[in-house]
Amino acid sequence: MKDKTVYQQVMEILRAFFVAPACLLCKQPSEEIVCRYCLEDTEISTFSAPGENLLEMPSVMSNRMTPDFHALHAIGWHESILAQLVNQLKFGRQHLAAKALAYLFYTFVLNRLSQVEDLPDVFIPVPISTIRLMTRGFNQAQLIAEYLSLYHPINIVQPVTKTRHTKQQSRMQRHERFANMQNAFTLKHNLNAKHICIIDDVLTTGATVNQISELILDRYPSAKISVWCMSVAKFD
Ligand SMILES: [Zn+2]
Fold first, then answer.
1. Which helix (H) or strand (E) holds 85?
2. 24 alpha carbon to ligand 1 midpoint, in Å?
3. What is the pTM of this model?
4. Residue 173 pLDDT
């Protein structure tokens, strides 16, 4: 993907702030970032029971590692508009896609979750390496966390650092992903929270969030760890 010119970036900002608000997906006028028609009509492949703890869903957990965290929530499968939005964000560098994902997460998961259980004390966005931060210009998980915290004021903290640059997971085989993530993170700062929520864009094998969970639980064995991902990749 070619970098955007300064002109394109300025136009994007102007459009975001000064032009009548429109749906990011169908571009029709809409107060919400994803309009109600898209919410109703477009196929968002949500799970059968959105808002439920996905660790209890065999269709989600089969073929994935045994999780060290305690709860998993996501909007739906990594396909159709969810995959489109995640790709727009990560590879097209469209910051507004993070806003749309947070809105969908709120609509399908957070809204319901907040009525039935206590929400996390802090968000930890999955960190990316300095090299990736420099090339991409932003951390997509951080952006998603920022937009999510607009719906529920949850502090964003970053006690975890990525100690080495790992290869892009999306280009790797399943067994390679586990090896790739081994000792990729360290816990640099103390955490003052009982319920910690790790934020990521897509859950693939779960190797990344599992390694961060292990690090936290090593130091804080009684902590509760939730993982909120926007989408979950399907394994054949
Ligand atoms: Zn729309």
1. helix 80-90
2. 7
3. 0.83
4. 67
